[in-house]
Amino acid sequence: MLAEAVGLVRAEMPYWNRSHGADHVFVASHDFGACFHPMEDVAIAAGIPEFLKRSILLQTFGVQGQHTCQEVEHVVIPPHVPPEVASELPEPEKAHRDIFAFFRGKMEVHPKNITGHFYSKKVRTELLQLYGRNRKFYLKRKQYDGYRSEMARSLFCLCPLGWAPWSPRLVESVLLGCIPVIIADNISLPFQDVLQWPDISLQVAERDVARLEAVLDHVAATNLTTIQRNLWDPVKRRALVFNRPMEEGDATWQVLKELEAKLDRLPQQGRKR
Question: How far apart (Å, rounded) are the C-alpha atoms in residues 270 and 273?
């Protein structure tokens, strides 16, 4: 589909041909960005389509270090969550939180599925095996339309990787005042200068899932209040929401700010505006 769109632009408009797409922006909100496949090994093998490699990509996928699927000019953006999530439930600081640690989502009992791949690198399966009968952990595999009300009752919201590191539950957790517990090695998070993720979330290495309860107990006994106070900062919450129309400081505003910085560098790279 993208190839056909680019073919149309090449044939009928001068802008693409002028820069070979260097001043064009694409949104690639797939598991592995512009590699267009949910399986990492297949995505890497296919790589980014050649016609996109000079363009700028907005993608939810981001990892630290080198990765085939981000070897192009890009901006890491937050997954889209409806703006009303930020206001549909009681204010986070006033919510009654009777759930210690929450997760609802796919957790395979037999993680090697029909594709031959281990979903979530077996992290979610290990969570279920270790904490499925632990009363401090509220882990559910079935879908439930009211799951956000459960997040709003929780102190910690587990955000393990799926096929890729990111998940919309990361944004939902922040908006609902539930401390995100990110279990996804080397993830690169959006708008780090504004959000300062270490102040509003926890990161637990995939290999340390067995220590998760001890980590959460330590935070609950020491700096829980500080993290929650940071999490309730309206500036941070606004930066994760794509409002219509755009509002100053929201996610769309942050994207345009990062694009502006990239455009300022384009002439130095021999590109045209």
Answer: 10
Residues whose CB is less than 8 angstroms from the CB of residue 260 and which lie 6 or more positions away in sequence, other chains included: none
Gap between the Cα atoms of 201 and 228, Å rounded: 9
Tokens of 116: 């031959």
- Cα–Cα distances in Å, from 156 out to 81, 140, 144, 260? 19, 15, 19, 35
Domain 83-238 top-level CATH class: alpha beta
Residue that the structure tokens 């926890």 belong to: 202
- The model carries a pTM of 0.92
Q: Domain locations in the chain?
A: 2-76+245-269, 83-238
**Tokens standing for residue 29:** 């909100």
CA distance 201 to 111: 27
pLDDT digit string (tens) for the chain, length 273 residues = 888 988 998 888 888 888 888 888 999 988 999 998 889 999 999 999 999 999 999 999 999 999 999 999 999 999 999 999 988 888 999 999 999 999 999 988 777 777 778 899 999 999 999 999 999 999 999 999 999 999 999 999 999 999 999 999 999 999 999 999 999 999 999 999 999 999 999 999 999 999 999 999 999 999 999 999 999 999 999 999 999 999 999 999 999 999 998 877 765 544 444
